Amino acid sequence: MTCHMATVLYPGSFDPLTNGHLDVVRQAARLADRVVLAIGVHPGKAPLFAPAERLEMLEQTCGPIVRKAGGKLSCITFSG
Asked: What are phi and psi of 58, to 5 degrees?
């Protein structure tokens, strides 16, 4: 038997984290074994929260949702 793991990549600013974001995370957690939330960092914009704060918020808020569904959450930042 072959084990197939699915990964969902969800990019966004997550500034601030909204109920809409949480809904997408819930749906992604049902579809995939791994959910990667990629926080976009745009030097030209003045965010409400620093990237490190957004990472922490996502891990604390979305981590339990993904784990409850049996998956793993990764949170990263990107630019460009």
From this structure: -65, -45
